[in-house]
Amino acid sequence: MSDNTRGVFSLIIINKAGGLIYQREFQAGLRKLSTNDYLVLAGTFHGVHAITRSITPKIPIAQPTPSPATGTTGPAAPGYSYPNPGVPVSGLDYLETDKFRLTCFQTLTGTKFLLFTDPLTGSVEGIIQKIYELYADYVMKNPFYQIEMPVRCEAFDRHLGAWLRGRT
Amino acid sequence: MVVYSFYIFDRHAECIYKRRWLPRPTSIVGKSRSNTVSDAAPTGLGQTVRSTDDDSKLVFGTVFSLRNMVRKLGGEDDNFVSFTTSQYKLHYYETPTNTKFVMLTDLKSPSMRIALQQIYINLFVEYVVKNPLSPTEHPGGVGVNNELFEESLEQFVVRAF
C-alpha cells in the first residue's frame, strides 16, 4: 500500500467555459455533494480561478526618467512587473486546508483538472500529469466524444481507476 | 520572504483594514508605505485601472468563495489555510467571530497561520478591540487605523521577515 494511492480523494474536470464535465470519487474522505452542488462548485471555482490571477501583486518598475508632465497615455511597457518574472501568471495552483489539498492543473486550452488529495500525499504533479495523459488518450481521441461536453468514456473510467489503484 | 499586502475583513464582509507593502524599485530608497503606485499604474491591455479598493473586494470574494467551498467539501470544521499561484501565496485566518485576516506573500514563505493568529491576538485584540475609543464595529475601518496598531503591524512584519 503506498501513500499515493491512499491519498487521492476525487477528481473534477472543468471545461473552458466553467462547466463540469467529469466528476469521480476514488476514496471517501470528503463529503458527498449532490450533482447540482458539484456543478455550482465547478462554476464557482472557474470564477475564483480567474480572480486569483487578476489579484496578482504588481511590482512597480523603476522608470529611468519620469515622463515629462503629460501623464495622459500609458507608456509602451507597463509600469510594473510580476513577482516571478518569466513565469506565466497563473491562477490558483494549490489550495491547502486542514483536511485536504486541492491541486489545479490548467491545460493550454483552458480545461481544468482539480485533484483533491490528502494533505500528505506526495507527487501530486505526477498524478495529475498522468491523468491528463489518460484524458488525452481516452477522451480526446475518442471519436464519439463531443468536445466541451460531459465525459462519458468507459475506457477513460476504466484506465483511470486501474491506474490509480495500481500505483505502488 | 516578501509580504505584498494585508487585509482585515469584518463579519459584514467589509474591508476594515488594508495595507500594502509594495517592494520599491531598487533605485529608489525609502519606506514603501504608499499605495499610490498601483493606483496610477495604467494597464496596457485594455484592462481598466483597478484601485486598492477594488482589489480588496476581489480578495474578499475569493476567500469567501473558497472558504465556503472548503466547508462544503471538508465539513464545517475544515478551514482553508492558504493557496498558491505561480506568482504569490495567499494566507487566510478566520477568528471565531468571523473576522478574516488575509495576507499575500511571495511563494517562498512558510505557513503564516501562526503569524496571522499572532497579529489577531497580539495586535488586533490589544490595540483595536481593547481600545475604549474604538467602536465595536468598524464601519469604513474606523478604529482600526490607529497609530499603535499600524506601528506594531509594521514592526511585526518587518521583524518577522
Description:
Chain B: Pfam families: Sybindin. The complex is a heterodimer of chains A (168) and B (161). Chain A is α+β, with helices and mostly antiparallel strands and 168 residues long. Chain A has one domain (8-55, 84-166): Beta-Lactamase, CATH 3.30.450.70. Chain A has helices spanning 3-7, 35-54, 124-140, 154-166; strands at 8-14, 20-25, 59-60, 80-81, 94-97, 101-106, 112-117. In chain A, the strands form 2 sheets. Chain A has a 5-stranded antiparallel sheet. In chain A, a hairpin with a 5-residue loop joins β1 (8-14) and β2 (20-25). Chain A is globular, with a radius of gyration of 20 Å. The model of chain A is unreliable at 1-5 (pLDDT under 50). Chain B has one domain: Beta-Lactamase (2-Layer Sandwich). Chain B is 37% helix and 19% strand. Chain B has helices at 36-40, 52-74, 113-129, 147-160; strands at residues 3-9, 15-20, 80-84, 89-94, 100-105. The model of chain B is unreliable at 26-47 (pLDDT under 50). β5 of chain A pairs antiparallel with β3 of chain B, so a sheet runs across the interface.
Task: Report the strand count of chain A.
Answer: 7
Give the mean pLDDT of chain B: 81
Which range best describes the helical content of chain A: under 10%, 10-25%, 25-40%, 40-55%, 55-70% or over 70%?
25-40%
Strand order of the largest sheet of chain A: 2-1-7-6-5
**Strand order across the largest sheet of chain B:** 2-1-5-4-3
For the termini of chain A, the CA-CA separation is 7 Å
- How many structural domains does the protein architecture of chain B include? 1
Outline type of chain B: globular
What's the CATH topology label of chain A? Beta-Lactamase
The proportion of strand residues of chain A reads: 15-25%
Instruction: Provide the CATH architecture of chain A.
Output: 2-Layer Sandwich
CATH architectural group of chain B: 2-Layer Sandwich
Biggest interface and its residues per chain?
A-B, 47 and 45 residues
Per DSSP, the total helix count of chain B is: 4
C-alpha Rg of chain B, in Å?
A: 16 Å
Uncertain stretches of 5 or more adjacent residues of chain A: 1-5
Number of strands of chain B: 5
The biggest beta sheet of chain B reads: 5 strands, antiparallel
